């Protein structure tokens, strides 16, 4: 019985060690997927398939006495493939996805084309007053969320953005070089 328990524990922990990892992505920008990409000697580079999850919606409450619907989009692409995810809803919380729309999907990524470019936006935002049935655009801020489930050993590498202190040091250094290069040598008369 003890050996059986040890075998079950070993299977559980080995599965946990090789589980996929879910990481957040910027909703507008670009990142690189890095990790142990492989190449088949016969078929060439092997892709990894990452699963992407998208959500989006209005920040804040919907207007009173109105039916509000929204549809948000996120386009994720590499130089070889792309995927558009859609998230939508209404003030009543009812689903509004058509069969061809989804807020999660898979995208193949190769070692040579491992840069993901993301862009999220609001495609439809309308308010319909139940009394007059007038349709107007509803100008409120929206929030987006994008995450990727990567195979074990892979990670997301975001481009580095210098901190403000680094920017200040670079500007001071550049200004010093400019001042020193404009300085004329002093000629002493004998």
Could you characterize the architecture of this molecule?
With 190 residues, this protein is an alpha+beta fold. The protein has one domain (17-182). It has two helices and twelve strands. It has helices at 2-17, 164-182; strands spanning 21-25, 29-34, 39-40, 44-45, 48-58, 66-77, 82-90, 104-109, 115-129, 135-137, 142-150, 155-157. Strands 2, 6, 7, 9, 10 and 12 form a six-stranded antiparallel beta sheet that branches. A four-stranded antiparallel beta sheet has the order 1-11-5-8, with no helix packed on it. The longest helix has 19 residues, at 164-182. The radius of gyration is 26 Å and the shape is flat. It starts with a helix and ends in an 8-residue tail after the last helix. Residues 10-18 have low confidence and may be disordered.
Largest sheet: 6 strands, antiparallel
Taken in chain order, the helices and strands follow as HEEEEEEEEEEEEH
How many domains?
A: 1
Whole-number radius of gyration? Answer: 26 Å
Class computed from helices, strands and strand pairing: alpha+beta
Low-confidence stretches: 10-18
Strand content: 35-45%
Number of helices: 2
Mean pLDDT: 78
How many beta strands in the DSSP annotation?
Answer: 12
Morphology call? flat
Distance between the termini: 103 Å
Portion in helices: 10-25%
């Amino acid at each position: 019985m003890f050996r059986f328990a040890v075998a079950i524990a070993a299977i559980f922990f080995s599965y946990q060690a090789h589980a996929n990892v879910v990481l957040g992505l910027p909703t507008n920008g670009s990142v690189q997927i890095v990790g142990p990409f492989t190449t088949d000697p016969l078929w060439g580079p092997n892709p990894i398939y990452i699963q992407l999850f998208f959500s989006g919606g209005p920040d804040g409450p919907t207007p009173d006495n109105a039916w509000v619907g929204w549809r948000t989009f996120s386009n994720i692409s590499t130089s070889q493939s792309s995927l558009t995810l859609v998230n939508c809803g209404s003030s009543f919380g009812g689903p509004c996805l058509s069969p061809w729309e989804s807020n999660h999907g898979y995208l193949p990524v190769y070692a040579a084309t491992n840069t993901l470019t993301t862009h999220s936006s609001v495609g439809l935002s309308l308010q319909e007053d139940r009394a007059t049935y007038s349709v107007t655009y509803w100008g409120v801020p929206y929030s987006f969320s994008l995450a990727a489930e990567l195979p074990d050993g892979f990670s997301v590498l975001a481009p580095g953005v210098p901190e403000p202190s680094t920017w200040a040091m670079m500007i001071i250094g550049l200004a010093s070089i400019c001042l020193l290069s404009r300085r004329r040598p002093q000629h002493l008369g004998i």
